[in-house]
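The pair is set out directly below:
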Amino acid sequence: MSVERDTVQIPDDLAFASFRQQCESTQGWQQKYSKLGVGVWVQDTSEGKAVHRMKCRIEIKDVPAELVYDVLHDNEYREKWDKQVIKTFDIARLTVNADIGYYSWKCPSPLKDRDVITLRSWLVTDNDYMIINYSVKHPDFPPQKDLVRAVSILTGYLIHSTGSGSCDLVYMAEADPRGSLPKWVINKASQYLAPKVLKRIHKVSLKYPEWKRKNRPHLKPWLYPEQNNLPTMSLDVLSIQHAESLENIDESALSEENASDDEGIKG
């Protein structure tokens, strides 16, 4: 499943097709949770292993795919509903369907909070809406002392339309959180936090039309590139963020007794 990159590139149609296939595949995945239309799968990881792979799927019977797609793109709305976000903003645009962005989020106590710089790209097909990202290094946004810089190897959403007012939403993440995480953190993320996040996305999607009507209803630069006022950037400025170049935080000895119920799943 791992995607090895030596240079920064805009994902092409093959990359999106591969992402869709991974979202839909069951081979090599172990189901950890299944309840009320929500399922979570993980790929085996040993204690302290750096890279963690997880995907979560939810059946949404009362929200169309295109609306969920808008919710996931709308950073202004995310700051209203995402309880874990510390700061999120777009940095620059690369093409009509790719940009560079920053996201920092609260992790469940007693873990340290994380942040990430990613190249994000999106694609809409007949029945599918996809948003994918991977980590890059930006010279103006180095790691910060009070946050752990995580690494997204391949993270994203697949929204598959199942009707005029329904869809299936899959969140898949292959990431290195840059920390030797205890097993309880991994179990909590897959069996509790991931389902909670997707259920919340469903809930806030129901409220989005009313909110958007009052908040620049015609502004959707992810659909209308001519609305995008971000500065342009050349790929030459960016480089691949390799996990090995970042500090690794050993949190493996942290106890679950002092853990909070914060969601701590990166969007």
Q: What stands out?
A: Residues 183-213 form the longest helix (31 residues). Helices lie at 13-24, 65-73, 75-81, 183-213. Residues 110 and 203 are 28 Å apart (CA to CA).
